[in-house]
Amino acid sequence: MALSDTSPSTATSMGKRPPRIVSDRSLAALAVLNFFLADARDGLGPFLDAFLATRGWSSFELGLMATVGGLIGLAATPLCGALVDGTSWKRALIAGPVLLVTVAALITLVSPEPVIVWAGQIGTAVVGAVIGPALAGLTLGLVGERLFSQQIARNEFWNHGGNFASLFAVFVAVSLFGQAGMVWLMIVTALGALAAIAMIDPARIDHRIARGLDASNDGMREGQGSPEAERHSPAPANVEAASPAERPSGLDVLLKAAASFSSPSFS
Question: Which of 6, 30, 39, 244 falls 20 to 30 Å from 161 in CA-CA distance?
């Protein structure tokens, strides 16, 4: 049976629960994306240190590179979040970094010169900082603020499953095929992530909701198309006329989601 997107009427009948993963093509693709991103977003990952150590890199050099890359990625994260909030190209902001990280990792394997390694790792840190906010915005735009916490939990489930699978695959690929196995593994995970991105229906992404705007029409657009719902629903906010202070960003929604986990309700 082919996967298909859930219609508004079906979503309404499901109440507060997200649609079942097998009945919604975009959410199924989101699960597959999180699975492959576990490996595709990090390039060589922990394999890099072992690879460079065999090329004469010292522990100090490896630690320094990891520290500098981490600090640069940390500094770039707020700017990347603002970029995600201001654009509707959220799928491209995941696909582009996946391609760049994979290419940088392959070049590092072919020519592990210090300049190439440093440039590749700094570039990986910067573009990798885009993936997190873009994935959160994509998720929020697909399911809305009310279902965001549940879907993030599902994302993490598939991401951790992908971590386990990628580590096992690295062990098997390197043991059997050496460096060539690592190359093909990176290509497969990158292609898997890109295929999953292509399967997400862009029409399902509400970019206003992805920024935390117009939350009254979030989720799976419950009641959309119903004349009764349209008569009683509040008019959408005028985003352009609102002041900057009245324009909540995706960060506001992320903070609300974190608060919902740390402050359980007893009602």
Answer: 6
